[in-house]
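Final report, section 2: Outcomes. Of the targets proposed, Tyrosine-type recombinase/integrase is the one most frequently requested by collaborating groups, and we therefore present its record in full.
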Amino acid sequence: MEAVDTYFSSLMYDFVESLEVEGGRSSKTAENYTHYLERFSEFADNPPVDTITSDMIRKYRLWLNRYKNDHEEALSLKTQSYHLIALRGFLQYLAKRDIESLSPNKIELPKTVRKQVTFLHFDEIERLRAQVDASDEAGLRDRAILELLFSSGLRVSELCNLNRDHINTTRREFMVRGKGQKDRPVFISNAAAEHVEQYLDARTDSLTPLFISYSRNAGAVDTSGDYRRLTPRSVQRMISQYARLAGITKHVSPHTMRHSFATDLLMNGADIRSVQTMLGHADISTTQVYTHVTDEHLREIHEKFHSD
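The predicted structure is given below as tokens.
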């Protein structure tokens, strides 16, 4: 029987590879896990996995908590948790392969406080829409993006990866590949479908991406059009600019539109399991963050109609 190299770094790369091949995780997730696990390997000097102990993990957690980068910036509690999640996943992988090491349940994650969800009320969405000058292609594109984000709950990366032939404005539904390379159905409103059609009707190019940039790279020759594909950063800047023009003081990002989509559904009676599916959340606990928002909404309704 072939001997197994039990040093951390060797088995770590086997684990990360299995995340992509067997777990269906994205290359970005694999890259992040590699980064987190390499940090532990560096800290512990690439130990044989059967020498990992609870005391070693305790010292590692302390090291993470005290870590500072070249700019004297510490790791947030959330980032520290990601390091420990990756390490726990690695130990689970070893246990499945019957390779002796520390039990994964010996790693407890720090309790993190969820950030308050920021969302826009419908009147704020209206003010945001009103800032768009749709007299040219760029304006038609921006209005279509706003409508699509609010009516679909798409992540900004999913929006930017859309091609013309991905979206069906007649049926107003299509499939999108989200995190973990998982497909899910996306449904859009009549308004979103109409604005996407108006934008595409105005386009004179035959480029592949659904949303393209009008700012630079005009001399490029890539016929696929990816050199013109709008980037998530560009969408972020665009939405922030319209929010400022609308006089909205809260931080507004593409993810704020996703939060607004989910909150609007729940406030109008949608069940949380359906919202989980539409958002593409693997775990319902991620979706449950929105119940705090809707609970506050219910309290306001109670105060308004049953305060005596």
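The radius of gyration is 23 Å.
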